[in-house]
């Protein structure tokens, strides 16, 4: 039994982690808009940082899990990077646009 067969959750983290982090970032950001209108938008920026790190961590964990496999899942890594970019771009929009407008 190889290390990949013993830890299938790492492949799940590689494929499902970044997309789940992006969806969670959207949901939490929508929930934080009313408090951001009342005070400051810092929680929106913290949310972006936390979920971008979560997506990157799931990519790293997933890649390390399939390290023994000769055919690295290149498409999953690229798709994960696209989700990380989407999280960062949405965070940039939070920085540029007033959430109450």
Could you explain the architecture of this structure?
The protein has 101 residues and is an all-alpha fold. The protein has one domain (14-96). The protein is built from four helices and no strands. The protein is elongated and about 50 Å long. The termini are far apart.
SSE topology sketch:
Blueprint: H1 3-6, H2 9-38, H3 42-65, H4 74-96
Helix pairs in contact: 2-3, 2-4, 3-4
Give a brief rundown of this model.
The protein is an all-alpha fold and 101 residues long. The protein has helices at 3-6, 9-38, 42-65, 74-96.
* Distance between the amino and carboxyl termini: 57 Å
Taking Cα atoms only, what radius of gyration do you get, to the nearest Å? 16 Å
Estimate the global geometry from the Cα principal axes: elongated
Mean pLDDT: 85
Please give the largest β-sheet. Answer: none
How much of the residues is beta strand, in percent?
Answer: under 5%
Q: What is the number of independent domains?
A: 1
User: How many E strands?
Assistant: 0
The helix-and-strand class reads mainly alpha
Instruction: Specify the number of helices.
Output: 4
Helix content: over 70%
